[in-house]
Amino acid sequence: MKEDLRIGFVGVGRMGGNMARRLKEAGFHLTAIFDIQHHAARSLAAELGVEAVRTPALIAESSSVVVTVVADDASMREIFAEDNPDSLLPNARNRLFINCATITPQVQIHVAQAVERHGGFCLEACMAGSITQARQGTLYLMCGGRPTVLAMARPVLGAIGQTVRHIGPVGEAAKVKALVNMVMNSNTAGLAEGLGLGAALDIDLTLLREVFAQTGAASRVLETDGEDMQQRAHECYFSAVHAAKDSAIALALAEQVGLPLPVAQATLDQYRRLIASGKGALDKSAVAERTFKGRQEPLP
User: Fold this and answer.
1) Rounded CA gap, 178 and 73, in Å?
2) pTM listed for this prediction
3) What is the CATH number of the domain that holds 205?
4) Is 88 exposed, middle or buried, given 0-12, 13-18 or 19+ CB atoms closer than 10 A?
5) CATH for 120
6) Rounded CA gap, 139 and 124, in Å?
7) Considering its fold, how many domains does the chain have in total?
8) Is the pLDDT of residue 300 over 80?
9) Could you read off the pLDDT of 87-139 as tens digits, one per residue?
10) What pLDDT, in 10s, does the model give residues 49-100?
């Protein structure tokens, strides 16, 4: 069945590019890719032996399945704009769109309705995982959409995700993903404070991380970010900018239902300060740069 699918990508940054590599390696037919960073698209296209095209419309024209991995609401609205002949929608009929970006539920719903009006099919497939999982095909995918559309997407989802979970209608997966990242970001900020205080108290941080791992302070974030915080190694897997965006989505949802979330708000404030200091492109682990004493000097 995968031989019958023609897959195009819109957005081939860290996550999208590695998802494309994974699908190519798994034997799927990749047709074309588009990214606003044209040099990145051309480089990946040459690597994978596919075409880098000038507009999203050309992706939909040549593909039966379009995977989108864009940065935010504005980017998503742009590639699905109904008044733009270069968007995906003019060629949406009978196409399946798998939308993997972390964006607001409202925009996921807006896009799905637009795609359906143009005769296409739409599924949100919100990702939990990082670059490594995207490359290995072991992402955790939270899906929102009609069960029949999920069934259509299963061959592709099964190649990029270790777990594929149907959350509900379009928009519901976006809510769950926002909460996942809100909690993850708060855990990251809390870990940074714990390690920062440990350093200020002259506690050996390797020992402290080992104790954390064996007690109630254990977390997935400790596994992925603890050593990086200690070593000031903040190579980007999930940027501070994206952490702030996702926590802001969750806080907006909380505001809609009248629920104050002081921990999530404090975390967002920390990430916004980090971004304001010029470190937004670093990994989210760089929030430790705001909690360790003496880290105002440049990173090594």
Assistant:
1) 13
2) 0.94
3) 1.10.1040.10
4) buried
5) 3.40.50.720
6) 14
7) 2
8) no
9) 999 999 999 999 999 999 999 999 999 999 999 999 999 999 999 999 999 99
10) 999 999 999 999 999 999 999 999 999 999 999 999 999 999 999 999 999 9
Amino acid at 255: E
137: its two tokens: 């095909």
Q: Which two tokens stand for residue 19?
A: 């998802």
Domain identity same for 262 and 242 = yes
